[in-house]
Amino acid sequence: MPNAVRFYETGSPEVLRWEHVERAEPGPGEVRVRHAAVGLNFADIYFRTGLYPAKLPSGIGMEGAGVVEAVGENVTDFKPGDRVTYTGSPLGAYASERVLPAACLIHLPDEIPFETAAAMTMRGLTSAYLMRRIYQWKRGDTFLLHAAAGGVGLIVSQWAKLLGLNVIGTVSTEEKAEIARAHGCDHIIYYRREDVAKRVRELTDGVGVPVVIDSVGKDTLTASLDSLKRRGLLVGVGTSSGAFPPIDAMQLAIKGSLFFTRPALADYIADPAEKAELAGELFGHVAAGRIKIEINQRYELNDAVQAHRDLEAGKTTGSSIFVVQGE
Predict the structure, then answer these.
(1) Terminal-residue alpha carbon distance, the chain
(2) pTM: predicted TM-score of the whole model, two decimal places
(3) How would DSSP label each residue in 203-230?
């Protein structure tokens, strides 16, 4: 009998329950996937706490990799036995198997293990649009990257090196600084004991950076805006410290005619052709070893409560996954 993690009310990690569930058969346009690995993402916490609304009771998790077991009517792009990965699907990835729309799936090359796919599909595609869609990067550009030792941060830093960019990364500890440097960060700022904006100005001869990639949110907004050069862009890609507070439009003008965007991955992979292009470039870099995916935490699905505790407490670095079964 399949198993899944579900929650019946929002709240602390303890609301997550490990349960037996009935095996579902795919309907028209759907497939059933047997998971080999499942991704653990900060967005999962947002659903669990109610920051992102979910109809309760609900499954949890949006990223997984495994093998197609069965397909429903009108599914032509996938067949039983296909290796697949996905992200941004309906909630429910924390499960040994599940049914979901075939349109969510991405074919997974044989060169990429399931665990790697589960660790990077959401983070990797996010990194792909940050590096390839959000801004017209020029070789030699310098940007500020918050949470540089996080899952997205490590991929973005490596991709930035491929594009000839310079990365100023913020971290909280010496351990995370070492990890960030090893993945391409040129300069480190310890945001808990340094004035981030002041250090950015020092590192850029007083000019500031053209782009700040901010996955922290509430606690870093002011420093992010103050780190930008004239007509710079703040990319609010995550809110690990809480939602971005309201931004006074006049302050954007006063601080240098700044821009702010709050992108969502779904809008960069909604078009199947664009999703395939971004995934292809990501998979190509990973398969060739140009971008390495660090899986620094592995959990069993029935240990989801502890996994969420660790993630919320900032105890994780790089990517975290749930191991469901071997390759």
Answers:
(1) 20
(2) 0.90
(3) HTTT--EEEEEESSBTTTHHHHHHTEEE
